[in-house]
Every structure is written in C-alpha cells, then in structure tokens.
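Hi D.,

Good news: the full-assembly prediction came through. Inputs first.
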Amino acid sequence: MQRLCDCCSNPATVHETLVENGVKTEVHLCAEHAVERGLIVPGPHGPALVVAKLLQGQVPARRAVKTCPTCGSSMQAIREAGLAGCPLCYRHFDEELGALITRAQGGASVHVGRHPAHAAELVDRAALRNKLARELREAVSREEYERAAKIRDRLQALGGQASDAFAEIDTSAAEEGGALP
Amino acid sequence: MTPSESGSTGGGPANSTPSSGAPLHTSRLVRIDDTQPPPDADCVLSSRIRLARNLLGFHFVNKASPPMLADVVHRVQSARLGGPFTGGVRWVNVQATAAGDRLLLFERNLISRPFVEAQHPRGVAISSDETASVMVNEEDHLRLQMLAPGLQLVPLAERMFALDAELEHALEFAFHPRFGYLTACPTNVGTGMRISAMLHLPALRLLEELDKVQRAAKDLHLAVRGFHGEGTDALGDFFQVSNQVTLGRSEHDIVEEFSSVIVPRFIAYERAARKALLERDAASLDDRIYRALGILRTCRLLTLDEAIKFLSRLRLGASTGRLTEVPLALIDRLLLEVQPAHLSRATGCELGEDRAARAEFVRRSLR
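Then the structure:
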C-alpha cells in the first residue's frame, strides 16, 4: 500500500530512517514537505550535489525527532498506538494530526457544534479569523490590494494562527496549577 | 462483593451515595418502564449516546501515571453530576472491584470491555436508574454514556448535553478551536460523540439480506458491530450501528439524521422483510418461533450463543404478534440475565459457561 506523507495526504516519495540512542524512527514525506524540511533540495539534484552539500556542511548528518515537549510522544508513536499522549500533542503536531483527522473524517477538518464556555472567546476569534482569511483571499483574487492590506492588518492584530489561540488555553491551565509535571 | 460494596474511590463526591449498599437491579437494563412500550422496540433493542471528554492539564490515560489517573478520578468524583444523576449516583471503584462484578457492569452496558480488564486507577458513576454512567479513565478521562430502550436518541441527547454543560462548571475540558473536543484517539475529535442503536434484524438474516444493511452502513459512514459494541461479535441477529464521523457536523445534526433518517431506514428494511416472510410462508416462521420456545422450555444444557439465538427468535415472534404467551419485556430481560455474570448472580453458579444452570434458569423463567 502506498505510504502517505506524515504531514499531508499526498503520497510519500521521500523516506528516511533515523536511529538515535538505539531507537529507530521513520519519516515519510511528499516532495513538497521533504523540501520544506531540508531533506531534498528543489531543482536539479543528484549524488554529486548531495556530496557537495555535505562537504559544505549544509546537509545535517542527523536530525532530532520531533516530540511533544509536554508528554514526549512522537508522531510515529501516535500513529503506532492510534492515540495522542496529551491535549497539547494536537498543538505540536497540528499539521500531521490535522491531515490524519481529515482523512478519517471523510474530508471534514473544522469542528462545528458545542464548545465549553471557557473556549467561547477562542471559538469566536477563530471564526472571525476564518472569515477574514476568506475575505483576504477574495480581495487578492480581485486585485483589491488596498482592501487586502487592511484585512491583513486586522488578521495580524488578531494574533495569527488558530493554534496560537489554543496556546492561550494551555497557559491559563498551567498558571492554575494544572497537574502536568 | 457487589459493586456497591466496593465503595467510593474517595474524595468526598458532591452528590454520590457510595455506601448505599443497594444491589444493582438485575432485571433492569433495556426496559425501564414495562407499562409503556418504547418507540420502535420491535426492531430497536436500545439507543445509546456517548461523549468523550478529557481534562485540560493532564496527559491522556495511555500516557498518564497512576497518581495522575487517581487525581483525575478524584476531580471527577468531586464534580457535581446533574441530570440523570440527581436521583442518586453510585460510584464504583473499578480497580478494587471483583472480576465477576466488573463483568456484571459490562453485561449491563455500563462499562466497556477494555474497562473491565484494565489495571490502572479508574471508576464509574452510575445513575440510580442505570440509564446513565460516567466511566473515568477509560480511553479518555471521561466517557459519558446514556442508554434508553427502543429508539429514543433525541431525548437522550437533550439529557446528555445538560449533563455535559453541568460538568463544565466543575471541570475544564480540553478543546481546540479547529479540532473541537480533544480525545486520545484522533479519530474521535470534534463532537467526541458516538451515537448507536442496537438493532434486532432477524428477518433480514433469514432472507439473507443483511448485505443491504452492510451496504447502507458503508454509504452512510456507519460502523456495524456486535452485541456489546466495539470488538464483539453479532449474536442472535443483534447489530449495533453507530456514527463514525464526529467532526464537521454539529451534535444536533448528527442526532437528527441518525434518529430520523438512518435508523428508520434499517427499521423499514427489517419490517419489510418480516412482512415478506409472513406473506411467503407464515407456517414456517411460526414453526421456527415455537421450536425455539420448545427448546428453551425443555432443554437441559444451554450455551450463551444458543440462548441468545433462540431468544432472538422468540423476540421476532413477540414483536410480530405471532407469539403472545411470552411478553417482549421478559425476552429482553432474559437476554441480559442469561449472560455469565448475571447468571452467576441469579443462580449462585460459578462464573463461566455453566450450561446446566442457564438451561434451568431459562426453563423456570418461561414456565
């Protein structure tokens, strides 16, 4: 069966196996994400180019496996167990888990429905951010650049990504003496 | 030891009655009020809604240490459980409960199979009418569950959301603006809600038309499971269908579609199959039903599989009016009482497959 990219639903074309402290970790990426992570370089390439890069010290010999700083889970461990380790895994593996969830949920990627009272402001802000992002795309496609710039400024004032909003919840929990070590 | 005797897991629960000592009602599960036939009970044994919730600031159960899990139990016990629990709540420390009692709770659909066998700190709150339970430290920190006989998902959902809202006052649930309620298994995020109906489809099986159900379930993104839900086999023509999509649709929409469109479609298939069977060869159907009654009234050894199989035939007879001498309520009660832990409790036999004790118990019940 065709392996899928760890970061999105495209077929993986780059495969890397890392062994660190006796622990084997596999990484499977599509070309786009492999370029993004520096595993391959865009444009013409070949063994000679790789050797040249190594000589220039541009290709790291070893790369650390990304883990959730809260519970220590890696994405591979989550895939193998079919379980995340803690709520913050969803923030640290936002992209990878987002792709996995969308596949499992028949294409759906955004929650609709009930939410806890403590998250009401975040939900409203996320909805506003999505609306502004939509308007920004429309403004750009219509070449209304002045309007697009204003929308961009409003988006920036809101604080960027939805995952940043989630970080606010985490911080408040820690301040209240949450049980995490 | 009864589950009640195992007592509370400590911590001074807000409204529990952990030491009431009242035994669980062995006759209760899918039929609460015998005077009112539940809606669509001819084809639907029971309806269930389950919500998965996790506490912010704690590792999920699979990664949490025993002290952290004990802390989760303590926090949930300290929260006020409203809605169906206002009439009284029994807390069971599952870790300290005997295997037979854990199995009893499982057979009554109050806890899951993995919850029976786990080793870590965990507990379950059970409402006094046994229609609601909250498993603490199953796969997620909280698994809220409500059960009702027949097809009653809309009222169940209302009660469930009232309970969820009340718990939110005391517990902070992990939530993400995009992924919704966060669950240990990434495929449960969003609403964290699973709704299911336990269908009784004997006529579809007799006509070898169960593939119709399988096809429809696949088209509608539903899971089809066995008698006790996930990881269990279909017994005696009982099939549990449940939603798989939990993200991108509101709880209300999921419940509405499941209750008004999906389950009614399966009911319509089964009723059409029953009608076809009766029109084609009523004598053969009657023979099948009354042979089952004869076996159950006279047998000397009875396995669980056989008991469920023959009770399923009686259920078909009772719900189509072909069998009037055994009420549907008694059949549904026996479906529960022939299971190992209930049989052991009722007859004093050893826990396990005691065919002689089961045969005698059923004979006596159908006299």
